[in-house]
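Is aspartic acid placement plausible here? Inputs below.
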Amino acid sequence: MKVFKFGGASVKDAAAFRNLAHIVQHYGGSNQLLIVVSAMGKTTNALEQVFDLAYHQQDHSPALEQSRQYHLQIVQALFPDAASPIYEELEHLFSKLDNTLRHLNKAAGYDQLYDQTVSYGELLASTILHHYLKSQNLNNTWVDSRKYIQTDTTWREAKIDWDWTERLVKRDLPAILNEQLIVTQGFLGGTNNGLTTTLGREGSDFSGAIFAYCLDATEMVIWKDVEGLLNADPKYFTDTIRFKEISYQETVEMAYYGASVIHPKTIKPLANKLIPLYVKSFLNPAGEGTKICDCRYEKLAPAYIVKQNQCLISFSVKDFTFISEKNLGTIFNALSELRLKINLMQNSAISFSVCTDWHEQRIQTLRKTLQDEFVIHYNSGLTLYTIKNYDTESMNNVLAGKSVLLEQRTRTTFQFASK
Ligand code: ASP
Ligand code: MG
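Reply from A.M.:
I modeled the complex. Tokens:
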């Protein structure tokens, strides 16, 4: 039993859908396959804007119409038969979304309403894919992942109820997979009272891993527009190399430091059941890709991770006493309450510094919360560089010409924040 996950880029236009069907046909194997799909192209970003407009009582119609046209134009290219049921389903989904946007109950709060609306990106993509694969004689069942991936109500970053999820998946899906393919959504979960949740941006990889775990898959494949897991993002570095095989642990660490290839939560469920994860290129599906598994290598090539839009916050005690564990407790509590994740931290005698992602609102709240106790300074617009398995050469190359605000190194990892 396999899980294939296709991200937004692999369904961004009609040609991409055709290519996807080709991959399912040739690489899906004759056996059981569950397909997880994300929203098409940049739809999630677009819907975030649509929702934000509606939430702030501004006219969301033109932005929503633009997204509808984008989907419609792809559907028209894929379904020449105007009588295809997809046309009606597409209109139905868009009018339901429009209706939801027109009747937002603000008492529910921004994040809960976000989940009820932005989730349409995956509902649309999976509905189109379901019909398209069918038209290519790839029989499949559309499964509503919100009925299987059960979560709490941490809106926009819902936590999985693993036992319940596994029970539901095992109850229904194996029987379907004996008959045909399954097409379902990434990114989405559901609560026990029928509300939609989302698992965090780029969370479709994680969805794939949840299904793979619950179904005891023999492998999962993430199809991407790169040849596999590279040691650096080609956006920032030339001469990247592809890892042929790499351990779960190395991959988790890279994801943790900000490598954007795989969602950080993806690895754990797979590693727990020793399910290998392949990262392959949908542009070159015959390529070898990367195998992420339970393996060990003595010497790995340095991996470079760049995390932009960072903020360095420093806290000093007002009366020149030392930073105490009690002070740290206060700071950590405030960070945790505000869901500000620490990417790097360091303390000195009278100050403590953390590097976090830039969330303007939350950082202002943090300042307000702690300003009576600490003098707080911050620097935004920074970049955090991490080199895993660094050596002198790789370190010097990355440091060249940069002004460093904070630096840290362990035996295997070198990190610094710079302007
Ligand atoms: N569509 C969602 C996002 O763009 C989930 C995903 O792509 O993995 O964040
Ligand atoms: Mg996406």
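Short version: The first helix runs from residue 14 to 27.
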